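Record minuted for completeness.

…
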Amino acid sequence: MFYLDLYPNDPPGFHAISTSSQWEAWINCVLPAEISSEVKRRLRSNLKHILVGLEMKAGLILPHGKRVSGKSVLFEPYFQNLNFEFCVGVFSVCEGLGTVSHLVLSGDDGSSGARVPPSRWIPALCNAFDPREEHGLKENVDAVKQVRDKMHQDRLGLRADIDWHSFGYAAAFRPGHEAIQTLLKQCAEKVPAETNLLPD
């Protein structure tokens, strides 16, 4: 059994031990100083809850994807949807950090509310977190974006059927997991020690 919240009497299984507040130190460390305090406050609030959500999803995805028990632990469609949801969360974290990175380079403290498209924030994110292109951040973010974009339902007559196998462990979860791990290399000492978002 996998528990997604604290349970009394320490029953066996997984439960979330990181809290959103434990992520604040890392977020504060990676946010550019030039960003306005109000924008920082909003982004900190958003990102810390997304990161805890990613931990919960990883707590279910990893045992199933790695077959830790020697057999599957999740109903396969649920597993695929969890991988998709994980990618959506990773994309949001990358988008937030990439956007503020781009705004700083543009001399904007974020208070203008300017929309930054992926064509601008992805290069800025990579420049801030993988400047030597050592960790494959761009490739992983591109893969995460492709997974996220597959679920758009806006032009049904023109969109092909969703290939649910593209939401599998290797194609969807792993790029997202590796993208987050690259971000966490910066200010690594501020990352909650209990997180399952770091390499084993």
Summary: Residues 20-190 form one domain. DSSP finds six helices and no strands in the chain.
